[in-house]
Amino acid sequence: MFALGLFANPFASAAVVGDFHQVQDQLDSSILDVYDGTASAQTTQNLAHSWQALRADLLDPAAQALVPGNFSSSSPEELAGQIGASRGALQQVAALEMLANQRAGHVTAAQAWRDLVTLPKFANADEGGLLLQQPAEQVRQPGVTQTLAREYVGWQVTRTRQLLDALQRTMASGQANAAYVSAKLAEIRTLAQFPAPLMQAAGVKVSAVSGLALPDLTAPYEAPVTTASLSAWRDKLEATLPNLLSPTDVTRLQRLLARFVDVIPKEYRNGVQDSQVVIPLEYKEAIQFTQQAQSLVNELAPVWRRDQHDAFEKYHGELMEKLAVLEKQIEQVQDLAVIEHSAGDIGSILENRFGLSARRAGDKGQIIEETALDVRDSLNNSLAAARAGHWQEAESLRLDAYTAFDSEIEIRVMPRNPSLATHTERSFLDGQEEPGIKALLDRGAPIDELTAGYERALKNLDGCVALLKVSVSPATIGFTAFTILAREGLEAIVILAALLAGLRGAENLRTRRGIVQGALLGLAVSALTFWLSQTLVRSLIRYGEKLEAVVSVLAVIILLMVTNWVFHKMYWVGWNARLRDLSKTAKEVRAPVWELFALLGVGFLTVYREGFETTIFMQSLILEGSTASVLLGVLGGFLFIGAIGTLIIVFGAKLPYRKLLVVTGLLVVSIMVTFLGSAVRLFQTVGWLPVHPLPGLNLPNWVGVWFGLYPSWEGLLIPPLALVYVGGAWLYLKLTSRRAQEKAPLASAAKTSVSSTKSPVSV
What we know:
This protein is an all-alpha fold. About 75% of the residues lie in helices and about 0% in strands.
């Protein structure tokens, strides 16, 4: 009940935060009393009282069990140890409460508890925060629970090592006393003693640190024997810390670290000129990448200590020192040559001493973050080019960024959170509530507006990356494959089924066969595209949007031809038989060769237009999950669209021929408008058309999916041109048929007259 109240009542949330900080403040003041020798019974009473007040706020039983009982002041060292252990327990309480509220879908409460966790130095707190900004039904997913739990465990493992480093430095400098050592040792062991429910949520083995006794350290603490004893205890503690990194994770993080160091001077060069910050976004990126590099070094430290012990002992300290120097140099806006020299030294250590490589691997788990880094790099370079007035270069770099995002990130985000995927995509293009990057570049917007547009795109990108770090179940993968195939295949099957149902009779047998053969060819080429997407198409993925745009244009042309054929049939089939004996007129009304070609080609292009996009989606889903799950979804999709197609054909066969042609015509016209709208959108995406947004107009995503209409002048005005063509074709054929019908009686009368003249005269 508390969690519900916390979620619904911001004042309740503020009270909980106040109780938490009260415990934190009491612990800080009490340890100072211990150090000063002024601790008393009142000190222990205040500690117990503050903890009990917080306990009343707690929802999770495991968190309640961590609340300490009475504190003892029998000796300063004992009380210091209790205070240190309480500090560690307070962090575990915050984590357990965060997860309890997250599972319940109480987003505000989960965010509040997460904000109370003390982060290690250089920690990246964006991932979990972005996940908690998703809708409540998505926040409750088990994958989010695991991500938040693993994030917290990673933080505290790093904090444990940082506290150990600080303790060893303080002892070696001769500044430690017994109370300080007791407090730090107890806090370190408690932080490393993760509660079993939290470890289970993180999906890692429960640590055995609870059985590890504290070391018996005695003054002088700087003595070699004492420091050796602490080092030995640290080795035992390190062995109990959870390992969150698989060999694949290690490879990915090492490569990402090398990439960060490589792009830092590039971002700095774009953001700083003559020791002046000219593009704050790029300058902040240089600082952020430096901090993330420091965080990655900390995260990789235990792996290096284990696997590259000699290199770790010799160069880890130097590496951290050089990264700290680089961060200070960037903050001081020093000369570019200084930044490049420092980054070069760091890169040399990583490559020559730790064997790090920045080469990209080929599976999803290893390339999402690197793709995001590529997108960031391209966007930042695009902004720098725009600032310099190089608008064409800025647009080219924007397209590079969008292509990388579309090929690796958007197609994975779309089945999980279509709203986020679409919102992020539009931030690269025309935008929604605020203009997107392409719209800003097209009108040469001022640098302040451009910077804000790029920042929005980068923020959305971060949200996508955080979402993709949450694992997806095989059932979700299979259902996603089913929905994609059903959605893409439904358009094609409806068009083909309606056309085939309308082509009844022996005279249309050849045309029916041609359409079916074209459709089968489209399926075969789609399968070939899927196979090539693992090799050739993957290397040409940056051209995917352009290829789809070309296919869409061809599909629109084919549909224009089919529309002409439909009207031709509607106006001529009803009375064509009466004029069959008029050879000249009959020739005029027969469908020309290009219309026959259109009917033959519609089968192929209708299927392949959908198949091209579907095969890229399926390739992405295989990278996300398993091949078996995708195949099950594909099988279900084929059964679904097959059943729908059969029903349409059976139903169409019962309709009168002329009415069926009307239905087919309306269907083809509506889909032609949608195709044309999609082609316009693709042309804008690849930079072949400009984007002029309509201020204040926001259309739902389904309007673009089903009607091909998008909130820009081009997106609203060009698609209806298909209706102009349809209206013109309808009017022309109607007038032509009327003239032909008016001439028919005259031609018939003339023929009768000639026949009478030539008849023999009876005597």
